[in-house]
Amino acid sequence: MSRVRVAALQYFIRPISSFEDFAAQVTGLIETAADYDCELVVFPEYFSLQLLTLGDIKRPLPVQLRSLASQREAVIELMSGLAQQYKLYVVAGTVPEVDASDTLRNVCPVLGPGGTRGAQAKLHMTRFEVEWGVAPGSRLAVFETSMGRMAVAICYDVEFPEVARAAARLGAHILVVPSCTDDRQGFLRVRYCAMARAIENHMYVIQASTVGSLPSIPAVSLNHGQAAIFTPSDFAFARDGILAEGIPNQETMVIAELNLETISDGRQSGTVVPLLDSHNTHELVNAPLVVEL
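^ that's the sequence the OP posted. Answer follows.
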């Protein structure tokens, strides 16, 4: 599959009165992506916190996150069923998970059109997540799909170049970045780093964002977001490295078509080939010279 159409969401966080309200919003978005012949749809980080409005929002957030984890399977069942029904891949934002050791993590389900399920835990915690009792994951996953290999860097994770570089060296041509940022500065940190990862690794980077607000819930009391699809900066791609982007802070879906042959060819024969040229970077930076001036 050389060309693939993808959708990145600017997901509007709004109060709901039932799980059915949540399901209707999710279903409508996946149906729309399918109507536009998308093979991949990306939800943002922490979009599932919308479900907290069904409970007591005055409880401490760590308690609420653990409560939300009890609905994880219902969310995954919903989105996996839609992935199978509409024959597309769904990167299902993030949904809190409590494992057998009672550890709380921020985990992104990755759902295939054939009913397959994978997951990527967030690897680096913001200081707020540390305060909420969320623990980091310990391993990067690379997903084998009909579109080729794909990896997920959840929000803050994209600010660590090693994550995307490891995925690229394992053959990933697509990096998905589900994000949730409360202010413009935080949003721009994620966006600028996502653009850098596209250039450094000659890969497409798809960022999905939360927009809107739930004032009583600290994690999503404010949201500043803009979904976008980034490319390397070279002749074969968009002039400014932005294949598509939404209008900031509005509810929308950003759709674009990726040419995976162009990405593959560019890694070998682009104007610059940073992924290839990085082969000895580890040795260079781990044995630096200290020069007195």
